[in-house]
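Pipeline run #58 for the internal structure catalog. This entry was flagged by the ingest filter as a single-chain record with no existing model, so it goes straight to prediction. Upstream metadata was stripped on purpose; only the residue string is passed forward. Reviewer on rotation: M.T. Logging verbosity set to normal.
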Amino acid sequence: MYHLFLAGDTLAWNPVLNQSGPTEFVFRVFTTVPELQALLFLLFLLLYLMILGGNSAIIFVVSTHSALHTPMYFFLSNLSFLEICYTSDVVPLMLSNTLRTRKPIPLAGCGAQMFFFMTLGGTDCFLLAVMAYDRFVAICHPLHYSLIMTHKLCVQMAVGSVSLAAFLSLQLTALIFTLPFCGRLREINHFLCDVPPVLRLACADTRVHQAVLYVVGILVLTVPFLLICVSYVFIASAILRIRSAQGRQRAFSTCSSHLTVVLLQYGCCSLVYLRPRSSTSEDQDRQIALVYTFVTPLLNPVIYTLRNKDVKAALRSAVFSKAASA
C-alpha cells in the first residue's frame, strides 16, 4: 500500500502510488483564511492590471510617436510585450487558485506553462543584453550608430533572443517531463510550474536534471550578464572621456534605467536558479518568484518612464491629445 521511492537524493513514502489516472498537479495555497484569500486576490489582481496598463502604455507610445522609432525604444517596446506575456502565463491561474478551490493542472498543462515561463524569462535576459549592446554602440560609436543598428539587425537580434530561449527551454522542459511522478495528484509548493519545485516531486534520481538546469541557467543568466558587464565597462570608459559634466550626465541617463532593470532581473533569477541545492528553501523561492512575477514587470515601465524624458514627453502628448479630442 505504501511504497518507498527515491525523490532526488532522499527517500520518501508515497501513499498514493497505486492511484489510477493521469498525473496532475495542484499548487500550494498562500493561506486558507478566506479573508486573507480575498485580500491577496485583490492585491494580485491590482498588480496584474497595473502591469498590463503600464506596459501597454509603453507599447502604444512607442508605436504611435515617430520620434521614438529608434532601436532603443524598439527593444523597450519588445521588453514591455514580453512582460505582458510573462505575467499572463502565470497570474490568471494563480488568481483562480487564490480565491477558489484549487483546480488541478494536468501534466501537459504544467509542462506548457513551464516552457512558456522559461522561454519568456530567457528572452527577457537575452533582450537586456541586446539593449546593453545598443547603448554601447550609441555611446562608444555615435557616428556609426545608424549604420550599425539598422532595423534589420534589431529584428534579427530580437528574433534570435526568442529562438535561443525557446530552444533551451524546450530541451530542459522535455528532459524534466520524462521523469516519473509517482501518484496521480501531486502538490507543488509554488504558485507556478517552475523547474526547482517540479523536480522535487520526481520519484527518480534528478542529479542529471539538476546539472542541466545549472548549465541552462549559466547560458541564460551568467553569459548575458557578463556581456552586459563588458558593454558597461566600455560605456563607463567612454562617458569618463566626455569633458562636459552635462554631456556625461546625459550619456549616463540613457543607461541608468536599463542598468536598474538588469540588476533587479538578474539578481532575483540568480537567487532561484544558480544557488546550490543545499541552500535552497522552497518558501524563499516562492517569495523571490513573487518579485520577478509582479515587481519587476511593474517597475520596468515606471523606471523607463520616470527616468526618460522622451517617453515622458510622449506620454504627456498622448494624454493631452486624448483629452483634447474628448
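catalog note: The mean pLDDT is 82.
catalog note: The radius of gyration is 22 Å.
status: ready for reviewer M.T.
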